[in-house]
Amino acid sequence: MTPDPSPLADVQRALAQRDTTTALALLRQAELDAPMDIDVKLQKAMALRLVGNLDGAIATLDQALAIEPYHFIALLSKGSLVERRDGPRRAAQIYTNALQIVPDPVPAYLQAPIDHARQVIADTTDALEAYLVSRTARARHLTDPAVRARFEEGRQIFAGKTKPYVSDGILLTYPRLPAIPFFDRTLFPWLPRLEAATDMIRAELEAALEVQKSSFAPYIAYPPGAPVNQWEELNHSPRWSSYFLWKDGTRQAEACAQCPGTAALLDSLPLSRQPGFAPTVVFSALDAHTHIPPHTGSTNVRLLVHLPLILPGPARFRVGNEERTWKMGEAWVFDDTIEHEAWNDADALRVIMILDVWNPYLNEEERDLVSTLMLARSEFYSGS
Q1: What is the DSSP track for 216-275?
Q2: Domains along the chain?
Q3: Given pLDDT bands bounded at 50, 70 and 90, which one contains residue 366?
Q4: Torsion, CA 255, CA 256, CA 257, CA 263, rounded to 10
Q5: What is the pTM of this model?
Q6: How far apart are CA 258 and CA 88, in angstroms?
Q7: For the segment 223-255, what is each residue's pLDDT rounded down to a tens digit?
């Protein structure tokens, strides 16, 4: 049952005149007439706040939220009252919950309180992180850099400064493999040999750029009508282009003939070899001041290697919570099923070589079985 609108209009007139006694009397009657009406409870909470009865106002908003737990204004108002009564730390979690259900579009009159809520959350999070840092200062003395980095990331996640990133393969997320953004180099003893070949690979790349620039095709090429999501800006764009030496397990004969030294080196490396899937080896060219948006790769049974070849200036790469800058002569291995993104901040083209290798936590038998598993799925869907 909805109350006659005239009592609420009378309430608003009384509140506008700061006549809270009349307003509360009208609201008590309105509650008797319509005990489940959210608007009545919001008006009552406002009146109680005006008379300084913060406990009563919060209790009234709790009643409203018991009726409609995802009522944004009730939740935001409760955060404001708790902040006033108990301080910003107690209000921060309420504000966090409220901001998960912000209406779209945001009404103009709500923008200022929403901005305030965000600031309270940010300030509280900063204060919590600083406190946790002070309480765990001995972490600075951890001798293992990997352990120290892991603890510091865990502390930031715990403080709410960031979030945990997990493997999320588009095709296959294989279970019980550790979600490691960048893998320890010692697991790949052949990396120095790849790095030592940087000059040779770059020379062949530059020759390919001169001779077969048209062979560098857009890396993102969705067909018409397909949902492009975050790739709208780069779809069919030459700003991010590629030149494949291997693609989905198939050797690209013309490209390998153009880059014979690189092709021979690749033949000697322990690439991930899966019929129909891997290896893939590609020169990835990113134009100046171009951003590759956050995304994830196909499967964590294999990892990606990046070797920078042309770095005209600063270029960054993020995997999960870890951001690195490419450096000439230094390769890294990462799990691309963890959200990652890249930036070319320089004024000219950046090119890296990308190749895939097996996840070292899979043994030979498992690699063979996984390859059969993935091929069988393709066979199933390609059959009648």
Answers
A1: -EES--PPTTS--GGGTTTTT-TTEEEEEEEETTEE-HHHHHHSHHHHHHHHTS-B--BT
A2: 5-129 (1.25.40.10), 185-382 (2.60.120.330)
A3: very high
A4: 150
A5: 0.82
A6: 64
A7: 887 787 888 899 889 899 999 999 999 999 999
